[in-house]
Automatic annotation (TrEMBL):
It comes from Mauremys mutica (yellowpond turtle). Residues 799-816 have a biased composition (Basic and acidic residues). This is F-box and leucine-rich repeat protein 13. Residues 793-816 are annotated as: Disordered. Gene3D superfamilies: Ribonuclease Inhibitor. Belongs to the DRC6 family.
Length: 816
């Protein structure tokens, strides 16, 4: 059966007429009276009890019915719901009262809360209704505003669209006219450029054809006459059209002799050469063999207030008067007196008195003593860069002076190369005096030991770069001390005591290192490369002559954090490196610009061909390898190649050079020495395609003739260096062609050239800065005689892979 809850809920949802009937006849009150009577009286026969009570209610009516009507008076509760009068409360006669003060308070609170709740709910409903009304009005207004804006925008857009359509038609018409004019102008420019290129190509082709026919000498004479006649007829100063600042910048880079010649061209040029900005930096080293005291004194007397940098390297003819005038240059900051034989302690005293602002001082290869070092600490308190390389006359006592007086406490660069007289105490004095050193160079010092480095590093904790070339007695102990300095650059060469431990220390303590140069360190293995693979900033890695390096170590390094950032890699004489490493290089090293695989005999065409897709590659050296023309053809695809060295590559022919040159138009340096199969066609291809060539080495190419030099002299006008040693078929005509065509040639090597006479060398080499010449027979190890004939037996000193392999085998025998 359903409970009362369900009954009440059904009454709430009942028909309104039924509910009115219940209310009109007070059925609920009757039910309450009957139920209370049954519950309290507990009759034996409930039905009979209910029947009697219903008759009584019907007889008495419903007006006086209460909840206790059906209960006997003896069982009714005696407490009253409320006092009859206020006197009952005053006299305490309301003990039987049902309603107490506490109950009244609770009832009042309950009633108040219910009333507040009802009012609050009604108020909330009212507020929500008002809020919804306002929101509805706001939405309607927004819709109306949007509709209005849309209508206005539509009208505006229609008018704007019509205007834009009109403007587009006008612009299209104007663009068609401009495009027509542009196309006409572009066609004219293209035709002029094509015409000029065609003329240049035709001229070059005719030049080479004329060379083949053999009438080049007559052509040179004609061209000479035309050149001189044209210059005499139309003399025009093109530099006068360049802005004055640009001309001054150009004059800043030429040497003193050329500057003096420029001053004689015109009055304008003479005034430009007298600008003070040109004379702030004076370099006398380019004319060191011609420098005398008188010349230097005259120049410094005129320009001493402006001189900031002065380079006297190699000026051995200067004496006390010159150094006296140098001391009058009060603003001098950079002084290089390297190899000045006239420099002594007295000269340095004059300079120290007059040049207190000196920051850079190079005293290498001079005869200074402890007295000069004492002057440095007293007068040059701001000195930052100091070179004492190969100064053998000062002692440890002199180094102790560096800390006296004002001291050289700001020194950050120190070069002590070749100073074998310095002991451990000397390095300790340096550490006490110059604790801020950041760059340390100590080359050619066999007396340098681990204790020296430990004494120096004990207080010089800011060292960032070290260079130790040919210091064989250093070991991992020294490197352990240096690793605490957070090195960025390390250069060590010719050391057999440094092991993989140094690389481990480097990886642990030098996370910012960028430059690692560990050449000819025989105990370095693949473990070293695996150790430094986590380093993130390595840009230069040089492991030349480290014969234990193999593909496994390189793979670990290249797959590390620095593989994609590497810019320079040198693996000369690493005989265990194969094509596998080159393929990994091509895959990972997208920023590699300089690659040296010299004497890596395991490298073949397969590996070099993989490098053909590296557009970042600028310089490559594969000398002494077994590569052929296929490798050169692949390297020609890089398009950015500027330096190529394929010396001693016996399989390379003219065809390979020709294919390479077709893609390497910007080539500046080329070394094809001792490639015996090359002929004049190689130089022809270089001259025809690579007009920017500045350095060429064809030593040992015995098939070359004067014709190859004619090719160069006619086209390669920027050539600075040329080595033709061992080219036995070259004659005096070679020098004549070079003298007329290669006017910028500075260095020329002509060893074992029997057909070039000494008289011709003296005649045509006056413009050269350096030359090497002899007319001796070619040595037997070249493999041919003075006539170019191939010798059956040739003994050549062990170099390259032969030397590396022999050394590696000897070490293995010793280990066994």
């Amino acid at each position: 059966p359903e409970g009362p809850g369900s009954t009440m809920s059904s009454l709430r949802n009942a028909d309104p007429a039924l509910r009115a009937y219940f209310k009109r006849h007070s059925l609920l009150d009757v039910y309450e009276t009957l139920l209370c009577g049954v519950f309290i009286m507990c009759p034996e026969d409930p039905l009979k009890f209910l029947e009697e009570k219903i008759r009584e209610i019907m007889e008495n009516g419903l007006d006086g019915i209460l909840w206790d009507t059906c209960i006997d008076s003896s069982l009714r509760p005696k407490l009253k719901r409320i006092s009859e009068t206020y006197l009952h409360i005053l006299f305490g006669l309301n003990d039987e009262q049902l309603m107490t003060d506490e109950l009244c308070g609770k009832a009042w609170n309950f009633y108040s809360k219910n009333l507040k709740k009802v009012y609050f709910q009604e108020w909330m409903q009212y507020c929500l209704l008002q809020k919804n009304s306002r929101a509805l009005v706001k939405r309607k207004m927004a819709v109306a505003a949007a509709h209005y804006d849309t209508r206005i925008t539509r009208v505006v857009v229609q008018k704007w669209r019509a205007w834009v359509q009109f403007r587009k038609e006008q612009i299209a018409l104007a663009a068609m006219r401009i495009q027509k004019v542009f196309n006409d102008s572009l066609h004219k420019i293209i035709l002029r450029a094509w015409h000029a290129e065609a003329q240049s190509s035709a001229k070059t082709k005719a030049y080479f054809e004329r060379l083949v026919k053999g009438d080049q000498e007559e052509y040179f004479d004609k061209q000479d006459d035309v050149q001189y006649s044209s210059t005499s007829e139309t003399v025009k100063d093109e530099i006068s059209n360049i802005p004055e600042r640009a001309v001054l910048q150009i004059f800043h880079y030429i040497n003193l002799i050329d500057l003096a010649r420029c001053a004689q061209v015109s009055r304008t040029w003479m005034l430009l050469t007298q600008a003070s900005s040109i004379w702030t930096d004076i370099d006398f080293s380019s004319v060191k063999h011609k420098m005398q005291d008188k010349t230097l004194i005259n120049i410094l007397k005129k320009w001493r207030p402006y001189v900031v940098r002065l380079n006297l390297r190699g000026c051995s003819s200067l004496h006390w008067p010159s150094f006296k005038n140098i001391s009058e240059c009060k603003n001098l900051q950079d002084l290089n007196v390297s190899e000045c034989q006239g420099l002594n302690d007295e000269s340095m005293r004059l300079i120290s008195e007059g040049c207190p602002a000196l920051l850079y001082l190079n005293l290498s290869y001079t005869d200074i003593t402890n007295g000069t070092l004492r002057l440095l600490s007293r007068s040059f308190s701001n000195l930052q860069y100091l070179s004492l390389a190969y100064c053998r006359k000062f002692t440890d006592k002199g180094l102790q002076y560096l800390g006296s007086g004002k001291g050289c406490h700001k020194l950050i660069y120190l070069d002590l190369s070749g100073c074998i007289q310095i002991s451990v105490d000397g390095f300790r004095y340096i550490a006490n005096s110059c604790s801020g050193i950041k760059h340390l160079v100590i080359n050619d010092m066999p007396t340098l030991t681990d204790k020296c480095i430990q004494a120096l590093v004990e207080k010089c904790q800011q060292i960032m770069s070290v260079v130790f070339l040919d210091s064989p007695h250093l070991s991992d102990v020294a490197f352990k001390a240096l690793a605490e300095c957070k090195l960025v650059k390390v250069r060590i060469e010719g050391n057999n005591r440094i092991t993989d431990l140094s690389f481990k220390l480097m990886s642990k303590s030098c996370p910012q290192i960028k430059h690692i140069y560990m050449a000819d360190c025989q105990k370095i293995t693949d473990v070293s490369l695996k150790t430094i693979s986590p380093l993130k900033y390595i840009l230069v890695l040089n492991l030349a002559d480290c014969v234990r390096i193999s593909d496994a170590g390189l793979r670990s390094f290249l797959e590390g954090s620095s593989g994609t950032k590497l810019r320079e890699l040198n693996l000369t004489n690493c005989i265990h490196v194969t094509d596998t490493s080159l393929m990994k290089i091509a895959q990972r090293c997208h920023n590699l610009a300089y690659l040296n695989m010299r004497y890596c005999e395991s490298v073949t065409d397969t590996g070099i061909e993989a490098l053909g897709n590296m557009t970042s590659l600028i310089s490559i050296d594969i000398s002494g390898t077994t590569v052929s023309d296929m490798s050169l053809a692949a390297l020609g695809h890089t398009r950015r190649m500027k330096e190529l060295s394929v010396s001693e590559c016996r399989k390379i022919t003219d065809m390979g050079i020709q294919k390479f040159c077709q893609g390497a138009k910007d080539l500046e340096y080329c070394d094809v020495s001792y490639c015996f199969q090359l002929t004049n066609e190689t130089v022809k291809a270089l001259a025809f395609n690579c007009h920017q060539l500045t350095s060429l080495n064809i030593a040992g190419c015995h098939k070359m003739t004067d014709l190859c030099v004619q090719y160069l002299s006619g086209v390669c006008h920027y050539l600075h260096f040329l080595d033709i040693s061992g080219c036995v078929h070259l004659t005096d005509k070679t020098l004549k062609y070079l003298w007329k065509g290669c006017t910028q040639l500075r260095i020329l090597k002509m060893l074992y050239c029997r057909n070039i006479t000494k008289q011709a060398v003296l005649k045509y080499s006056a413009k050269l800065e350096k030359q090497e010449y002899n007319d001796a027979d070619p040595p037997a190890w070249l493999g041919y005689d003075s006539g170019g004939g191939v010798l059956s037996l040739n003994k050549k000193p062990k170099t390259g892979p032969e030397k590396a392999k022999a050394l590696y085998q000897n070490e293995n025998k010793e280990a066994a």
